[in-house]
Design a protein that fits this description.
The chain has one helix spanning 5-30, and strands at 42-46, 60-62, 66-71, 86-92, 99-104, 112-122, 128-135, 142-148, 153-160, 163-171, 181-188, 191-196, 199-205, 213-219, 223-233. It is mainly β and 234 residues long. Strand 9 (153-160) and strand 10 form a beta hairpin. It starts with a helix and ends with a strand.
């Protein structure tokens, strides 16, 4: 029997169409019903409001210098309690110690972000403040990024047995005593990004240390305040 022209065309396109529908069906079956949820980030906000005045914060270890929670009498009082906001102050260095730092025992951070607000109250030699991260259990190995008032520089170091080693420098504006600034670090894989007053100022790659705790840092005769320490794990 001879097929009519329309029947010939229908037969000619029927097989490719069926194959296309089969492929689409297989592709749909390959897509999972629900995508796997991404690992949730977690944030710790250390405001020192519940810590005891005149003492180092809870869950911290003083490595060098004198650190204590103090009231910010220059800040605005709480509307409901009338209390001043609290901050962490490095008030005095031990004789013969050039670097003063404190570390927080929790959390342990791998990839993530750390930020803190700071202001220098005084310092004649080198008013210098910094943020330490990926510190080991003894707090002597890890990284420090700091602001040097004497040189108007942002500097990245790594620590080996408590001794800093230079990694990178970046010029910044002169540091004014009494002015609040923000220092932050982001770690993603091998990349370390440093932010100063909200702007990205430095990026480097390093794999010496991959996780650890967070700390704060000053140098020489610096007296400085720290507030709103925020730690985020990714």
């Amino acid at each position: 029997m001879t097929l009519a022209p329309r029947a010939v065309l229908a037969a000619r396109f029927a097989a490719p169409l069926a194959l296309t529908l089969l492929v689409l069906g297989l592709a749909a079956d390959a897509v999972p019903a629900e995508a796997k949820p991404k690992a949730r980030s977690r944030t710790w906000a250390l405001s020192f409001q519940a810590d005891t005045l005149g003492q180092a914060p809870a869950q911290s270890a003083v490595m060098s210098g004198t650190w204590e929670v103090a009231e910010d009498t220059e800040g605005a009082r709480n509307d409901s309690t009338g209390a001043y906001p609290r901050l962490l102050r490095q008030v005095d260095g031990e004789a013969g110690e050039v670097h003063h730092w404190i570390r927080f025992l929790k959390p342990v951070v791998g990839d993530g972000e750390v930020s803190v607000r700071f202001r220098v109250r005084s310092g004649e030699l080198d008013p210098s403040v910094g943020l330490a991260f990926h510190l080991d259990k003894k707090g002597r190995n890890g990284y420090v990024v700091r602001v040097s008032g004497a040189d108007s520089e942002l500097i990245a170091h790594y620590l080996v047995y408590g001794k800093r080693r230079d990694m990178k420098y970046e010029k910044i504006d002169a540091l004014a005593a009494g002015a609040w600034h923000t220092l932050a670090v982001r770690r993603e894989g091998m990349t370390i990004t440093v932010f100063y007053d909200g702007a990205e100022r430095m990026r480097l790659r390093d794999e010496r240390f991959r996780e650890g705790t967070v700390g704060l840092w000053t140098e020489d005769d610096t007296i400085a305040d720290f507030a709103d320490l925020t730690i985020t794990t990714r």
